[in-house]
Amino acid sequence: MPTLVMKFGGTSVANLDRIRRAAKRVGVEVAKGYDVIVIVSAMAGKTNELVGWVNETSPLFDAREYDAVVSSGENVTAGLMALTLQEMDIPARSWQGWQVPLMTNSAHSQARIEDIPPHNINQKFAEGMKVAVVAGFQGVSPEGRITTLGRGGSDTTAVAFAAAFGAERCDIYTDVDGVYTTDPRICSKARKLEKISFEEMLELASLGAKVLQTRSVELAMRYKVKLRVLSSFEEQTDEAGTLVVDEEEIMESNVVSGVAYSRDEAKMTVVSVQDRPGVAATIFTALSDGGVNVDMIVQNVSEEGITDMTFSCPTDQVARAEKAMNAVRDAGHLEFESLIVDYDVCKVSVVGIGMRSQSGVAAKMFKILSDEGINIKVITTSEIKISVLIDRKYMELAVQALHDAFELDKAA
Ligand code: ADP
Ligand code: ASP
Ligand code: MG
């Protein structure tokens, strides 16, 4: 039997009615003759609530216990989805990560998938089960503890299953009807894309477009999984949604094809460190060991051998960053005067494979922002993207102005 993977995000399983609606969609594919693997997220808002409880209980939590708590949301929806399908006379069974088993490494709260042995689920398919409902976002470490795959990780579960089972396609059902030129919730002129390249989707995702988790796009690219994003709220055709495809399949490409933003960024400056070999290594090793995901980095011009080091990281990692910096100072490995934290920043980025061959995009981006009176605090670039850190209050304005100026509302 051909296999299909269908993933339903939080809003698509937010209550029993929505679970029934999603189950009906699954029924349509079962009727076409597919063995279906359904990956479910927790009900909308549930994971946030669980993360909130963990933070309130223990701000610098033990990530093993964080995983024990936050993985639980998906267990509920997996069981409910299996029951709903059974009520529709579709043979279905639920699976938690450890039961599959979905094997990961031990990087709790950010674990990476290492293996998905298919035989347990395949055996059930051979016995007549039509739908395997798998709790997304979770796995099991070599030590036998529950792990989670980072926020938005059910997308990655879905793509990994599609690769492991050689699925014909991996359909990601969500609350928008595809991938847009930017988040349609903050820019009304955002345009739905029929296709997007893996490379661009990877950049958009890693720069904050949460419609797909970055790792899911990486896996789809590596294992050539046919990946589609579509709405669980509309009647679907075989052509619905957005397909993520190889670059060669895109005929025309704009220089800029999307704008992404990441709201919850913080900027930290380590004031007055010595400008000598080894200082950056000390700072960033301590941050990495402390579990801080550093994003942008700038080192100021030094004066009399003293400089400032500025970096950005997610706001919820600032406490860890401060702890790591104070610890290296207390241990005598680093001297600095103070730490300055700016919580009110965000990152806005433009992405496009056309940037490889066309210059001037950065200049245009900076001009657009300056025309809006937006000051740029940090800049980073790569082959196909330019990112800036700006005050958070300008986030929507910056996204809309860039979307307009790069004419993303018009088809290529
Ligand atoms: P799910 O719960 O289904 O996984 P998510 O909330 O994780 O859904 O992702 C879908 C959301 O991603 C949309 O509601 C939208 O606000 C946001 N989003 C951000 N950027 C984009 C984009 N370029 N295209 C589509 N949606 C986007
Ligand atoms: N429930 C998890 C989250 O909210 C995983 C997911 O939905 O993809 O991050
Ligand atoms: Mg998601």
UniProtKB/TrEMBL annotation:
It comes from the Bacteria. One of its GO terms (cellular component) is cytosol. The keyword Amino-acid biosynthesis applies. Pathway: Amino-acid biosynthesis; L-lysine biosynthesis via DAP pathway; (S)-tetrahydrodipicolinate from L-aspartate: step 1/4; Amino-acid biosynthesis; L-threonine biosynthesis; L-threonine from L-aspartate: step 1/5; Amino-acid biosynthesis; L-methionine biosynthesis via de novo pathway; L-homoserine from L-aspartate: step 1/3. It is an enzyme of class 2 (transferase). One of its GO terms (molecular function) is aspartate kinase activity. Residues 268-353 form the ACT domain. CDD domains: AAK_AKii-LysC-BS, ACT_AK-LysC-DapG-like_2, ACT_AKii-LysC-BS-like_1. GO terms for biological process: homoserine biosynthetic process; lysine biosynthetic process via diaminopimelate; threonine biosynthetic process. SUPFAM superfamilies: ACT-like, Carbamate kinase-like. ATP binds at K7, F8, G9, G10, T174, D175, Y180, R185, K210, V211. It holds the Pfam family ACT_9. Its EC number is 2.7.2.4. InterPro entries: AceGlu_kinase-like_sf, ACT-like_dom_sf, ACT_Aspartokinase, ACT_dom, AKii-LysC-BS, Asp/Glu/Uridylate_kinase, Asp_kin_monofn, Asp_kinase. Keywords: Amino-acid biosynthesis, ATP-binding, Kinase, Lysine biosynthesis, Nucleotide-binding, Transferase. Substrate binds at T47, E74. NCBIfam families: asp_kin_monofn, asp_kinases, PRK06635.1-2, PRK06635.1-4. This is Aspartokinase.
